[in-house]
Structure formats: structure tokens, C-alpha cells
């Protein structure tokens, strides 16, 4: 039922940082916090956990993973302590030069996105290599910041850092990148990897108190499910100000004297935001379990009393596979895009509606060419699978609560299974009929 | 465009106003504008839109807010049901 790890990293654009990390934290992070001279004392190379996408995300915090020890587990250290000579920042194409500070040189981030940044973003949206798209944690400069400049804290998913640095063009600020093992802000907060402890750790490791004279950190608002502001203060002496949700609002936030208006405070989920998430949903098309099912359908279609024939298998099997493709398109493409206009609150209902629409349209196009049994397969199977795929889009949305998702799942899963059973029955009947 | 709202009935957000110290941090961290200040106390003005992300409860020092925070993600919940553990997305 659940998507396995490999599939997840592709199709689940949404959710969430590494839980009780499937791959142990060994590779992620490290570095002696206090004794390090250079700001990015932290990290070694990237670990292998899959990442999530920037804007999307779901996932509130799972209580279990919010425990400090768990958070520490994922951000804690690898064995070898890097020597100062190891603290090179490069080669990172988005780093342009250095700024000298009392705590040593700090790399300066470019505020321009290049073609390779855009190519990387496109890859992430299609789920290619999303498990390893990260920026080295530590302190960075934007422009020519001084001791009074604001400190903006963010996650180390590169899409996240790209969104932030490109929003800061023309400003002078410090950017403190914490180690969220390559997961976006909201999901990492939900997982507990973006935590008060991790923020304090990077503040100490980067010797931030020697770089700035104020004791104020601007955190993205969506870090709040993982960060208790008072715990940051207790742990490192810096006071947390929750900034806007979207990086693009930061210049306005800073201009207004670090004031956030109501619009900056609320998450949106508009057409464009849903559009960028849809491609990752379509990864269901090559979900390993579906591929296995395709192979099974072709094999079963090719065997009858006349013997075994691949040609017959393809002729009879491909329409079934085509129907599955239509269902994924309906549940993972049409449903996200038409979310506000599809009926009901439950994503499963919206998906079933989109699936039914696609199935009926297909039936109309093929009128007369389908047997009654094949029509049954189409009209029951496509809405059922589309409903299931759409239900999984809850994880990518910014409007669902766990209580609500559980309620809709309890109602929808039996219906989806019934629809699937009817579809399989119809397919078997159409096989026997030949 | 119709406003996007999700299933509202089972939302678990609760606020005990007598414990509220009026700091207003819940208004700052809530991404769905569930809270408002009234006579120096926070008040829930829109429980139905809550995502149960848990930001308010975690940042409420006096502990006036409770919510069963978790992941609003079907894949995670299915996994939780199967493994008997806390739902957690293992997309990451």
C-alpha cells in the first residue's frame, strides 16, 4: 500500500523530511561546532535521504520526531572532524566571493539564478535527483552586510536557498543555512529537523554572535511547527522573529521594520503553485507497483486456450494500461489543477469525479468498440485509481489537516477498493468472453 | 475562484483562554489565520481552516493551545496504519 522509499522520493513532492532517517545520519552534517574557525563548520557531504519540494509540502510535525533527541540524531555528527583547511565552500556556482568578518571569511551568495539553477529546479519538479539537492549549512552573506544587518535563517534544500537568495537582490543581509538534510522549511519543521536545537547549533558553529551585534534571528514562519522561539532564546541567546512565509515578501518585511502583514502570514495554494506540483504526481505513471501490474496484465492477457502470445497480450493488455494512465492523469494532473472547482472537500471525492469525467469521455470516444465488461473496467477502475492518486495529493497541499485526511481515508479506501475489485472483475469477465 | 477549504469537523485545535498570556505568537505563526486577539487574549476565529501543523502549540509558552499535530498526508497515514507507528512521510 505504501509507497516504498525509492518511489517516494520521486512521487511525493510533498512531504516531509526524513523521519527516523532510513539512511542513518552518518553522512549528513558534522563538524565540531564550537572549535571551528570558519562559519560553515558544519557539514560534510550530503547524506542520502530523499528530499521534498520547496513550495509544496504538507506535513505537519509528527510528534514523535519532534523530540529533541531525534532532531539531534538527524543533524548530528559524523566522526571525522574536518580541519580548517577543509572548510572550502566551493565549488559552488552560487557563491561569489567572500566577506571578511571577525569570525573569519563568510561566502557571499549570488542573488541571480542561472540556467543551471533553473535546470535544477525543473529536475526537482519532476522528481529527478531530489534526494540530494542541498546547500552546505552555515553562514552566508548577501551583498555587503555589517554587524547591524538582519540574519535570515533558512533550510538547506537548494530550491529553498535559491528562492531566498534571488528574493534578496540589492539587499545586505546574512543568511544562516541550517542543516535540514536537504528538506524544505515546512517539511523539515514538521519532521523536527528544523528545530530550535539545530538553529542554536548553527548559530554557535558559525560564531554568529561575533559577526552581528544584535541578537535577533529572522526565521521563516513555516519553520514554526518545528521551532519553539523561546527554546532558541534559551539555547543560544538569540531572539526569534518570525518573518513572512514567502521569501519574495522579505524585502517588504524588512522595509516595514520587520512587520508582517496578514497576507504574508497565510499560505496560499493558487493555480500556479498547484501546477508546479503536478509533474511529481504524474510519477505515479511509473510507480514500481503499477509497472508490475502492467506486466501482469500483459502476461495474463497473452495466455489463453490457444497458447501464449505476446501480440495478444499487448493487444488486450495495453488498453488496460492506457486506462491506468488516464486515471493517474485524472488524479495527479487534473485534480490538482482543478482542485477548487471539483466538488466536495475530500480529495478522494475530487479525484473520483475527475476520474469519472475522464472515463465517461473515453467511453464516449470509444462508443461501440468496448464490450460491456470492458466498459465496467473503465468506468469503475479509472475513478477508483484516480481517487486514490488524488488522495495522496493531500500530502502536497497546503490546506489539509491530518484529522481530515484520516477521516476521508476511512471513508474512501473501502470505496476505492470496491471500485478496483469491480474493475478487475470486469477485466476477467472480458477475458472469459473471448 | 472558490476559497479552498478542507474537511473541518475533526479538527483538534483547542485554546484555553484562561492560560493565554496575550503574547500573540500564535497569530504570528499560524499559516491559516485561525487566531485573533481580543481584549489581550488570543481567540480561535476559524478552527475549520486549521492544518494541525502544531506551530501555535509549540510556540505557546504557557501551553494554552493544544492540537493533535501531525502529517496531513495520506501516504504517511497509510504507512502509519501498516507499521503501527506515528504517521510520518518517508518522502524524506
Q: What's the N-to-C terminus distance of chain B?
A: 33 Å
Radius of gyration of chain B: 15 Å
Number of helices of chain B: 3
Number of strands of chain B: 4
Fraction in helix of chain B: 10-25%
Main β sheet profile of chain B: 2 strands, antiparallel
The shape of chain B is elongated
Q: What's the CATH class of the largest domain in chain A, please?
A: Alpha Beta
What is the CATH architecture descriptor of chain B? 2-Layer Sandwich
Describe this structure in words.
The complex is a heterodimer of chains A (434) and B (92). With 434 residues, chain A is mainly α. In chain A, 47% of the residues lie in helices and 9% in strands. In chain A, strands 3-5-4 form a 3-stranded mixed beta sheet. Helix content of chain B is 22%, strand content 13%. Chain B starts with 13 loop residues before the first strand and ends in a 9-residue tail after the last helix. Chain B has helices spanning 25-29, 55-59, 74-83, and strands at residues 14-15, 35-38, 41-44, 65-66. The model of chain B has no long low-confidence stretch (mean pLDDT 88). Classes of the chains: A mainly alpha (434), B alpha+beta (92). At the A-B interface, helix 1, helix 2, helix 6 and helix 17 of A face helix 1, helix 2 and helix 3 of B.
Amino acid at each position: 500500500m505504501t509507497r516504498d522509499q525509492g518511489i517516494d522520493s520521486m512521487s511525493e513532492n510533498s512531504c516531509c523530511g526524513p523521519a527516523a532517517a532510513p539512511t542513518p545520519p552518518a553522512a549528513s552534517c558534522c563538524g565540531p561546532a564550537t572549535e571551528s574557525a570558519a562559519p560553515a563548520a558544519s557539514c560534510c557531504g550530503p547524506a542520502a535521504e530523499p528530499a521534498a519540494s520547496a513550495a509544496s509540502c504538507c506535513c505537519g510535525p509528527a510528534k514523535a520526531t519532534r523530540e529533541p533527541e531525534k532532531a539531534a540524531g538527524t543533524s548530528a555528527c559524523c566522526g571525522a572532524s574536518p580541519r580548517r583547511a577543509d572548510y572550502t565552500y566551493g565549488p559552488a556556482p552560487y557563491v561569489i566571493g567572500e566577506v571578511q568578518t571577525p569570525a573569519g571569511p563568510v561566502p557571499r551568495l549570488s542573488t541571480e539564478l542561472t540556467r543551471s539553477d533553473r535546470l535544477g529546479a525543473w529536475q526537482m519538479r519532476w522528481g529527478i535527483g531530489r534526494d540530494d539537492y542541498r546547500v552546505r549549512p552555515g553562514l552566508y552573506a548577501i551583498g555587503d552586510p555589517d554587524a547591524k544587518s538582519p540574519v535570515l535563517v533558512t533550510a538547506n534544500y537548494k530550491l529553498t536557498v535559491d528562492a531566498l537568495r534571488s528574493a534578496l537582490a540589492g539587499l545586505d543581509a546574512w543568511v544562516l543555512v541550517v542543516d535540514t538534510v536537504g528538506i524544505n522549511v515546512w517539511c523539515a519543521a514538521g519532521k523536527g529537523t528544523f528545530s530550535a536545537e539545530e538553529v542554536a547549533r548553527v548559530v554557535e558553529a558559525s560564531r554568529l554572535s561575533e559577526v552581528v551585534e544584535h541578537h535577533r534571528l529572522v526565521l521563516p514562519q513555516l519553520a514554526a511547527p518545528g521551532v519553539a522561539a523561546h527554546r532558541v532564546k534559551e539555547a543560544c541567546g538569540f531572539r526569534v522573529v518570525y518573518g513572512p512565509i514567502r521569501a519574495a515578501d522579505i524585502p517588504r518585511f524588512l522595509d516595514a521594520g520587520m512587520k508582517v502583514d496578514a497576507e504574508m502570514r497565510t499560505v496560499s495554494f493558487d493555480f500556479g503553485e498547484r501546477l508546479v506540483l503536478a509533474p511529481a504526481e504524474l510519477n505515479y505513471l511509473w510507480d514500481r507497483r503499477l509497472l508490475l501490474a502492467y506486466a501482469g496484465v500483459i502476461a495474463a492477457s497473452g495466455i489463453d486456450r490457444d497458447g501464449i502470445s505476446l501480440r495478444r497480450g499487448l493487444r488486450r493488455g495495453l488498453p488496460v494500461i492506457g486506462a491506468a494512465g488516464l486515471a493517474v492523469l485524472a488524479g495527479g494532473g487534473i485534480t490538482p489543477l482543478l482542485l477548487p472547482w471539483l466538488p466536495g472537500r475530500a480529495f478522494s471525492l475530487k479525484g473520483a469525479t475527475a476520474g469519472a469525467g475522464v472515463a465517461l469521455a473515453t467511453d464516449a470516444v470509444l462508443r461501440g468498440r468496448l464490450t460491456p465488461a470492458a466498459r465496467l473496467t473503465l468506468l469503475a477502475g479509472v475513478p477508483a485509481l484516480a481517487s486514490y492518486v488524488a488522495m495522496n495529493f493531500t500530502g502536497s497541499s497546503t490546506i489539509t489537516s491530518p484529522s481530515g485526511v484520516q477521516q476521508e481515508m476511512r471513508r474512501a479506501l473501502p470505496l476505492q477498493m470496491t471500485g478496483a475489485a469491480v474493475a478487475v472483475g470486469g477485466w476477467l469477465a472480458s477475458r472469459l468472453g473471448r | 475562484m472558490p476559497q479552498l477549504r478542507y474537511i473541518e469537523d475533526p479538527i483538534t485545535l483547542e485554546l484555553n483562554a484562561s492560560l493565554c498570556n496575550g503574547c500573540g505568537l500564535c497569530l504570528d505563526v499560524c499559516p491559516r489565520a485561525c487566531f485573533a486577539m481580543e481584549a489581550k487574549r488570543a481567540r480561535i476565529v476559524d478552527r475549520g481552516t486549521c492544518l494541525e501543523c502544531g506551530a501555535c502549540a509549540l510556540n505557546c509558552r504557557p501551553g494554552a493551545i493544544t492540537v493533535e499535530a501531525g502529517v496531513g498526508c495520506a501516504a504517511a497515514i497509510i504507512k502509519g496504519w501498516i507499521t503501527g507507528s506515528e504517521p510520518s512521510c518517508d518522502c524524506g
